[in-house]
Sequence to fold (406 residues):
Amino acid sequence: MKKIIMHIDMDAFFASIEQNRKPWLRGKPVGVTGNPDGRSVIATASYEARVFGVKSGMPLGTAKRLCPEIILVQSNFDEYIKVSKELINLFCSFSPAVEEFSIDEAFLDLTYVAKDFNEAYKLGSIIKKSVREKFNLACTIGISFNKLLAKMAAKLSKPDGLKMIRYDELQSILEPLPVGKITGIGRKTELALKEKFNVETIGQLQKIPLIELIAVFHTYGKFLYNVSRGIDNSGVITEIDREDAKSIGNSITFDSDTDGLSFIKGILRFLSSRVADRLRRANFYCSFVKVTIRYSNFNTINHGKSIPPTNLDSMVFKTSTELFEESFREGSKVRLLGVSVCGLTKGIDLSLYDDKSLKKEGKVLLAMDDIRTRFGFDKVNYGSTKLSNKPSSVNPPHCANVKDLS
Ligand code: TTP
Ligand code: MG
Fold:
């Protein structure tokens, strides 16, 4: 059965709330500033300011140069969080399965709510109207048969839009689009695709064989292959799913925010090993992996997916890397990273793995677990897990703490 998924993304969220709080800002170019860490960049800009090229993450000086009339307003996070929660409550009255994806985005599973796409579209109009009436805010809604395409539909119809991507029009919509229109493909990947394969559009990306993408981009190559075809099997994760699922997780808050990808990958490997180690100790296997990314502005993204039951470091690491790559906002700095697993089942015999290398890894891990029990977690790791100059340190460098999430 094909799913019907809706993605809702508020338009110029912080700026629109400020325009409601201070009505004289309406219709004016507004930039919301001020991160909790005191760095001066534009968090977001009203669409009136975007006409001049002002965007999120831009230094204030650049914004003022591009748009001298811009009115800068200090951010009020408590207010944005309050509105965000109220919006989620409203969305919950339209679907039993709502995923709070970020402070101003949600996914709704409408598979059992709307009989077909036309009905989902009507529901989209009703939701837009309710949001306008109750909050005096505009949002953009995308509808399709998975999360990736629903988000893309919204991205293609910003601002104040409502758009569907149906199965039969998928290819004609995807083919001519620049690769950057896919969530998860940022500027760096765009440049790499141009340089390595002379690829600029999604249609051109579809022509590159999987093996060649993997040779250049490793696990991320598979993601590129799938998303260029609109493939995404991730589900809408509701609060009840989160609460019901017993989970095991670890997170790290960095001393200083970072965008160093090789460092981040090292941390993901470390967190994945730690989580898998805890799974094995409890004699559990997991079938769902989730990555949490908190950016320097405290905006927090959770992204997860189902996998075949595993308790292996490599499988948790591979999945968490894919999830990170799919959701990382290039150009942003990361404050906290978390890896957690759920969908826990009690032990499965190692012999269930038909893949020889996985069986071997299972045996190596048993030996590593033994050493970790006797000498501490950080004494033994894979060669490529470069966490610290000092092998005996408890925390990786630049990390304030390593926290058990559960
Ligand atoms: P977005 O949904 O990316 O941006 P937006 O809602 O302002 O504009 P639109 O969706 O119409 O393009 O982000 C939601 C909020 O998150 C945004 O209002 C401010 C905050 N934010 C930052 O603080 N820094 C950033 O780099 C980005 C992209 C967003
Ligand atoms: Mg938004």
Residues 348-354, 378-401 have pLDDT under 50 and may be disordered. The longest helix spans residues 261-281.
